Automatic annotation (TrEMBL):
The keyword ATP-binding does not apply. GO terms for biological process: cell septum assembly; FtsZ-dependent cytokinesis. Residues 97-165 form the POTRA domain. This is Cell division protein FtsQ. The gene is ftsQ. Essential cell division protein. Belongs to the FtsQ/DivIB family. FtsQ subfamily. It is a single-pass type II membrane protein. The keyword Cell cycle applies. It is found in: Cell inner membrane; Membrane. The lineage of its organism: Bacteria, Pseudomonadati, Pseudomonadota, Alphaproteobacteria, Rhodospirillales. GO terms for cellular component: cell division site; plasma membrane. Keywords: Cell cycle, Cell division, Cell inner membrane, Cell membrane, Membrane, Transmembrane, Transmembrane helix. InterPro entries: Cell_div_FtsQ/DivIB_C, FtsQ, FtsQ_C_sf, POTRA, POTRA_FtsQ_type.
Length: 308
C-alpha cells in the first residue's frame, strides 16, 4: 500500500484553500460592482430617466425642426414648398384633373373672349389652381353681366351661368350715344341700331334718374309711346321731346300727376295734335300751352277778320 507523505498532503490542502479564496474574491468584486451601480442609480433624480428617454425619442423631431429653421432663415423653404406644390398640381393635371371644357349658359351679348379672359383658364389648365370666386368677381365686372355663377365640376369642366343686363334707353352724352340699363350702367356704344325703339336720355346724370321717369311713362302709354327723348334739366327735372316735335316741361315733383293731367287733356281735346310748340306742366293743376308763331299769326288774323 503506498504511503502518502506529509508534503503531498500539505500541497493538496493549499490548492483547495486557494480555490476558495478566488471564489470569495470574485463574490466580493461582484458585490462591490452591484453597490456602485446602485449608488449611481440613487445619484440620479427620479425624473432624469423618463426625461432622458423622451429626449431620445424627440431627437429626430428636434433635428428636423432645426433643419427647417435653417432652411427658412436661408430663404429656401418657400421655394421648396412652391416647387412641391407645383409638382403636385402638375401631377394631378397629368392624372386627368385638367380643364377640358368651359360651359357657359345665359350669354347673349357678352363677348365670349371676354368671358374666357375673366375666367383665366384654357384647355389643359390644372383644375386645382382655378379659383371660382375670383372668376365670378371678374365676370361680374363685365358691362353686360348683372350676376354670374361659376362652378368647378371635376374632372375637367368649368360651368358658368350668366344673367345679363336688360337695355333701358339710349344715353346721349357729349355728342355720343351709349346703351344703358335700368341701373345706369353703360352696356355698349356699338351697333346701337339694334335698339331703335328705346327712348333717348340726355344729360350727364340722366341714366341714374331714368328708371323712375320711364316707369311713369309706361304707366301713361298715351304719352309715353310718343316720347322720343327726355332731357334732364339741372339734374332736377325733365323735359320731354315728343315724336311731333312738341316739348313737354315736367315739374320737379309730382311728375305722375302732371303726366296724368296731360294724358287726360290729350284724350279729351287732342291738345298735342294742335299747332303748338310746348306744353308747360311745372305749375301744379295748370297746363300752359305755347303755340307756334304761325298759329299765333293765324289767330291774330282771325281776330282782325272778326272786327271788319
Amino acid at each position: 500500500m503506498p504511503r502518502v507523505s506529509a508534503a503531498a498532503y500539505d500541497t493538496g490542502r493549499g490548492s483547495a484553500d486557494s480555490h476558495r479564496a478566488k471564489i470569495a474574491a470574485a463574490a466580493r468584486r461582484a458585490t462591490m460592482q452591484a453597490a456602485r451601480r446602485a449608488n449611481r442609480r440613487r445619484a440620479l433624480p427620479r425624473w432624469a430617466l423618463p426625461s432622458l428617454r423622451a429626449g431620445l425619442k424627440l431627437s429626430p423631431v428636434l433635428l428636423l425642426a432645426g433643419f427647417l429653421a435653417w432652411v427658412w432663415a436661408d430663404g429656401r423653404l418657400p421655394e421648396m414648398a412652391g416647387k412641391a406644390s407645383e409638382g403636385f398640381v402638375r401631377t394631378t393635371a397629368e392624372a386627368g384633373l385638367a380643364v377640358t371644357e368651359v360651359l357657359v349658359k345665359g350669354r347673349a351679348e357678352t363677348d365670349g373672349a371676354a368671358v374666357l379672359a375673366a375666367l383665366g383658364v384654357g384647355t389643359g389648365s390644372p383644375m386645382l389652381t382655378f379659383d371660382p370666386h375670383a372668376a365670378q368677381a371678374a365676370l361680374q365686372a363685365l358691362p353686360w353681366v348683372a350676376a354670374a355663377t361659376v362652378e368647378r365640376r371635376l374632372p375637367g369642366t368649368i360651368f358658368v351661368q350668366l344673367v345679363e343686363r336688360t337695355p333701358m334707353a339710349l344715353w346721349q352724352h357729349e355728342q355720343k350715344l351709349y346703351l344703358v340699363d335700368a341701373d345706369g350702367v353703360v352696356l355698349t356704344d356699338e351697333r346701337l341700331e339694334r335698339w331703335p325703339d328705346l327712348p333717348m336720355l340726355v344729360g350727364a346724370d340722366a341714366p341714374k334718374h331714368g328708371r323712375e321717369l320711364l316707369a311713369l311713362l309706361s304707366a301713361e302709354p298715351l304719352i309715353g309711346a310718343r316720347v322720343e327723348a327726355a332731357v334732364l334739366v339741372g339734374g332736377r327735372r325733365w323735359d320731354l321731346r315728343l315724336d311731333n316735335g312738341v316739348d313737354v316741361r315736367l315739374p320737379e315733383k309730382e311728375m305722375a300727376a302732371a303726366l296724368r293731367q296731360l294724358a287726360t287733356v290729350q284724350q279729351t281735346n287732342r291738345v298735342l295734335e294742335r299747332d303748338i310748340v310746348a306744353v308747360d306742366l311745372r305749375v301744379p293743376d295748370r297746363l300752359v300751352v305755347q303755340t307756334s308763331a304761325q298759329a299765333a299769326e293765324q289767330r291774330r288774323e282771325a281776330q282782325r277778320q272778326k272786327k271788319i
